[in-house]
Amino acid sequence: MKNLKELFVTKKSEILSVFVTAGYPKLNSLETIILELEGAGTDLIEVGIPFSDPLADGKTIQDSSEIALANGMNLTVLVEQLTEIRKKTAIPLVLMGYLNPIYQYGVEKLLQFCQINQIEGMIIPDISIEEYERSYKTLFEKNNVSLVFIVTPHTHSERLKRIDELSTSFIYMVSSASITGVAAEFNEEHCQGFEYIASSNLKSPVLVGFGIHNNSTFKKVNQYFSGAIIGSAFIRHLSKSNHKISHFVDGIVGRCF
């Protein structure tokens, strides 16, 4: 298995991470989607835990969460599915979710599951670095799971430095102070934000999310960072009746098909 650290050591740029909402479009879609993403050359998969009140997600991912919840997806079901999926693939997986359902399930219980099943990272947008250090750092370290912190183009340099010190896998940079699903090309303001983070001499690799939806935006962020996270664009692709995952990935990375 290539773990997260090995991924970032062996591949310094053009890392493709794809977000998928567990339970969307069907309750049992996750295994097929993950295996097809792996087969298409995706490097890392971010598995979203559906939640009724996501803070950072735009309409596309919110809608996919509502459908997933209506389909019957919850953390108990997701754990069962990922246990079986892990028997069939070694691709690096990261869980993304909000604290409420994770807390209800049991933070330590979920971390123990992650350790057993080689899920090495979690993204929890509503845990601040202060709360992490105060309440969760020991649990994450005990179970060898990395909390992936989120930064923006406006994160203060001192806070950015502390986040870098606490990070053990990668840092998630959002391209702008907005929500997911904005499908526009990057402008000068975005590039200034990229330059600010890129010039901060971080030890941790950085993946950029929010707004990456085609080869042009993928190439742009790779001029500055290790790779990109594709979310809403992939969810929209899954909503098409004739979707083919390999074609989506080929289009993002610029392969001809």
Structural summary, described in words:
Helices cover 46% and strands 14% of the residues. It has one domain: Aldolase class I (TIM Barrel). The chain is of the alpha/beta class and 257 residues long.
Task: Describe the structure concisely.
The protein has a single domain, classed as TIM Barrel, CATH 3.20.20.70. The protein contains twelve helices and nine strands.
Give the helix/strand layout.
Layout: H1 4-10, E1 15-21, H2 30-39, E2 44-48, H3 59-71, H4 75-85, E3 93-96, H5 99-105, H6 107-116, E4 121-123, H7 129-142, E5 146-147, E6 150-151, H8 157-166, E7 171-174, H9 188-198, E8 206-209, H10 215-222, E9 227-230, H11 232-238, H12 245-253
- Rg (CA only): 17 Å
User: What's the CATH first level?
Assistant: Alpha Beta
What name goes with the CATH superfamily?
Answer: Aldolase class I
Average predicted confidence as pLDDT: 92
The helix-strand sequence is HEHEHHEHHEHEEHEHEHEHH
Any guess at the CATH architecture? Alpha-Beta Barrel
Distinctive features:
alpha/beta, TIM Barrel, globular, 257 residues
